[in-house]
Amino acid sequence: MVHPKVLSSRCDLHNNLSAKISNMKKFLLVVAVLFGLLPASIAKAHDPIILTSDQRTPSDGPLLLDGTISFALYGSLDARGETRGFRVNFNAGDPLYISILIPDLAPENMLDNASLPFLNVEDPNGAIVKLATTEKISFAEPYTGTNYVRLTEFRGTALGGTYSITIMGDSPARFTVSVGEKEMFGSPVENIANRELGVGGVMAWYAGEAQTVDSTVDSTVPTSEPDSEPSSGESSSNNPLILIVAAIAVAAIIVVLRFIRVVKTR
Fold first, then answer.
1. pLDDT (tens digit, 9 = 90+) per residue, 201-253?
2. What is the 3-state secondary structure (H, E, C) of 113-155?
3. pLDDT tens per residue, range 154-186
4. Which of 76, 65, 71, 73 is nearest to 45 (CA)?
5. Is the dihedral angle over the CA atoms 64, 147, 78, 114 positive or is it negative?
6. What is the 3-state secondary structure (H, E, C) of the chain?
7. pTM score, two decimals?
8. Considering only CA atoms, which of 169, 177, 168 is closest in space to residue 112?
9. For 261, how many CA atoms within 13 A lie in the half-sphere containing its CB?
10. Cα-Cα-Cα-Cα dihedral of 245, 251, 255, 260, to 10°?
11. Listing from the earlier edge strand, what are the strands of the sheet with 118-122?
């Protein structure tokens, strides 16, 4: 017959062990959720490109080699009647997505619809579609911590060839044009000399700072070269995520090791 004190001690041990197992399961569940959320927040980001004041026409501006990849082009119309431009390549049958946004800041969010920036989209056959304001939907961009108002978006099926996109407006305003929905950073872009600006360039644009770029433009800038160094803006934006992931991983390892040690000592 087991002594009552021994039986009570065994019950306490079992209860403590069960509690530790339950707490570890809860912790690991939280870790799994956090690991799931971090990539999701990263995946909402667009590959940023900064348009400059000398890129007034599509032929002057960047050429996106794959229009299905998610890019965000940031620029400013500095005076009434100014334009900015860029080009996008599609294969026949590709999904076509284009939208235009403004920062949810003054003076842009104070402009009436007629004064807001709009797009002229010319397809490979020369047909032009005007994309002007049809809605005003505010939202936050978690990757950069910035806020925007979407003015319009367009979805369709692309023709094969190059689309020419011109941004126009009747008032000075900052704008963002979003193209594509497939998340893939570092894709090659032609006719661009400031690709390294990255997130730092976006934050300067958001703050209303002028972008100065060397007028010499390389014909092709592949950004996925293994020996290329990341920009300071991209490095600083990724460091917090790396630290968070590392901290979670270390904490999970510590909890598992402690649990193993407790089980062995029992």
1. 989 999 987 654 443 344 344 433 333 333 333 333 344 444 455 556 656 66
2. HHHCCEEEEECCCCCEEEECCCCCEEEEECCCCEEEEEEEEEE
3. 999 999 999 999 999 999 999 999 999 998 878
4. 71
5. positive
6. CCCHHHHHHHHHHHHHHHHHHHHHHHHHHHHHHHHHHHHHHHHCCCEEEECCCCCCCCCCCCEECCCCECEEEEEEECCCCCCEEEEEEECCCCEEEEEEEEECCCCHHHCCHHHCCEEEEECCCCCEEEECCCCCEEEEECCCCEEEEEEEEEEEECCCEEEEEEEECCCCEEEEEEECCECCCCCCEECCCCHHHHHHHHHHHHCCCCCCCCCCCCCEECCCCCCCCCCHHHHHHHHHHHHHHHHHHHHHHHHHHHHHHHHHHC
7. 0.66
8. 169
9. 6
10. 70
11. 128-131, 118-122, 161-168, 84-90, 63-64, 189-190, 220-221
Beta bridge partners of 175: 75
